[in-house]
Amino acid sequence: xxxxxxxxxxxxxxxxxxxxxxxxxxxxxxxxxxxxxxxxxxxxxxxxxxxxxxxxxxxxxxxxxxxxxxxxxxxxxxxxxxxxxxxxxxxxxxxxxxxxxxxxxxxxxxxxxxxxxxxxxxxxxxxxxxxxxxxxxxxxxx
Length: 142
Known about the structure:
Porin; globular
């Protein structure tokens, strides 16, 4: 059977989110390890979207290296934007480099930022310490 022609996947850099955190609470439960990491602020910048991360608006509720963050952004024009980020963070990989890939999802009111809720995004992230923050480099899937 012949392989079908599969169209290429193209990505368009949209913006970067700097997520500042205020510490991590980690524990091992009987079923899995968990981490609670509250968001203390940050900023959003790039060619397609700019704004801020609303302080104390959410957290990452990670489990077994899977990120599941819920928080609020505020666009530079004042529009509120809900963001859910799911994906994986593996600090130990075969070649020793961290693997941090996530998919952010957005919900916005009708208006100029409505496109966020109608676009599929992927991101790679970097974690920094002292002070703690994440850099999520977000790309729209075309």
